[in-house]
Amino acid sequence: SVxxxxxxxxxxxxxxxxxxxxxxxxxILPGTASLERIAQENPQGIVLSGGPSSVYDEAAPRPAAGxxxxxxxxxxxxxxxxxxxxxxxxxxxxxxxREYGKADLTRYGGQLFEGIVGEFVAWMSHSDSVKALxxxxxxxxxxxxxxxxxxxxxxxxxxxVQFHPEVVHxxxxxxxxxxxxxxxxxxxxxxxxHIVEDLIEGVRAQVGDGRVLLAISGGVDSSTLGLLLxxxxxxxxxAVFIDHGLLRLGEREQVEAALLPLGxxxxxxxxxxxxxxxLTGVSDPEQKRKxxxxxxxxxxxxxxxxxxxxxxxxxxxxxxxxxxxxGGLHSEKSGAANIKSHHNVGGLPDDLAFxxxxxxxxxxxxxxxxxxxxxxxxxxxxxxxxxxGPGLAIRVIGAITEEKLDILRRVDDIFISGLREFGLYDGCxxxxxxxxxxxxxxxxxxERTYSYTAALRAxxxxxxxxxxxxxxxxxxxATMSNRIVNHVHEINRVVYDITGKPPATIEWE
Length: 509
Ligand code: XMP
Known about the structure:
Elements: E1 2-6, H1 12-21, E2 26-30, H2 35-40, E3 45-48, E4 74-77, H3 79-87, E5 91-104, E6 107-108, E7 121-132, E8 138-142, E9 150-153, E10 158-161, H4 173-184, H5 192-207, E11 212-216, H6 220-233, E12 237-243, H7 251-259, E13 266-270, H8 272-279, H9 285-307, E14 312-314, H10 319-327, H11 331-339, E15 355-357, H12 365-375, H13 379-382, H14 402-421, E16 430-444, E17 447-460, E18 468-469, H15 474-487, E19 491-496
Parallel strand pairs: 1-2, 1-3, 3-4, 4-10, 11-12, 11-14, 12-13, 14-15, 17-19
Antiparallel strand pairs: 5-7, 6-8, 8-9, 9-10, 16-17, 17-18
The chain binds xanthosine-5'-monophosphate (XMP).
The site of xanthosine-5'-monophosphate has 14 residues, from loops.
Keywords: ATP-binding, Glutamine amidotransferase, GMP biosynthesis, Ligase, Nucleotide-binding, Purine biosynthesis
EC number: 6.3.5.2
Binding site for ATP: 217-223
């Protein structure tokens, strides 16, 4: 594997991403991880990431003692390169001016650039530069502004690049990272089939004969995990799907139809009455989330007792969640979590203290989707947009009622089916319908109406932290509007949300 030591660059995750794409397994550890922790990953190569600090700062994060002496190749990126250079006896100082953006390499060569030809555009973002080269190193690339843009010592196999090879703005950066894998002698055989076999073996090794409990939400992660665990432990898995009455049209049936035939021991729990009872008259969004979270845990706990005892609780935690919760380096996400309290399985009572099984901890979302395909999860679930845990409760603005949920379900179904029908679904990252409390005057036939306004929202985004509203074709919106008012007689007005995030959020509550 390649171990990436993270010194706080916003691009660290992309380095891991690129290595995975190149077929190499890589793992991100905090920059200051201990030598023992690093050794556990059997590193064949190490990357020191970029970061916001200066190597000459007292408080700058540093790799643990001994890391630089490991007998494997090391690649330093930006801050990482400056650190390598300084440790080997070179000097690093503030550059004349901060270099930010694209730069052309005026010259390049050496092992890292082997086989690369033509123009090399490099993405820079730094204020410090290597001023004096340490002994044993040579400069292998330069730009007009930065004479020391890449360095290497091919005896100790230490390499450094001042630019970011992992970002798309460095188009040939992937070749450079591939060369580094070659230097490390890392086999590029990491693919979805391997991942599935490894995961199954890993789960078997961890749980042995133990019994495993899993909460199924109907989304791609928990559904895929259900399929994987069924393969790994068969009947020792109990998957619980709680129908809280806040699901979309036909959703419960779809989940059952997808998982039962593939051998998942699935128990569907009808908890609609409890959830509706607890939510009656509640209009504050955060209050709704809290109640749903609490009721969810209650229902789940009850099922755990009925079908238990269980030794393990399985969770579909993904790699980005792990990195985000670990270092707190990626503060955008923790900030966002405070804006809306996202509910997850958590806070179970002590006597239900299971050990956790989290087979997807090293995977990215698209890897899970790939695994889902291999395990036979139907396409409509596999490529589905995310759907929030509190479901339609946060899409009926204000207090929810059965009647309002029923209206929203039909509107949502027309919109989502329409997106699929017109080939627009995959182009959106998330699409939703909202039932507003606004009633307004309309005219249908010769009659005056006084009915609800439905809002449609579709967004494109990479990370759901920021988003753009999707530029859906007018003709499509016109068709949706017609279908909705014709088929859902409680609606007489349809609006399309043209606000980005920020300032709005994706959900309306
Ligand atoms: P917002 O509305 O904050 O949504 O822009 C960002 C993403 O998070 C989802 N979301 C939730 N997911 N529980 C969840 O599991 C929640 O309470 C919740 N609130 C928002 C939202 O659907 C979008 O994908």
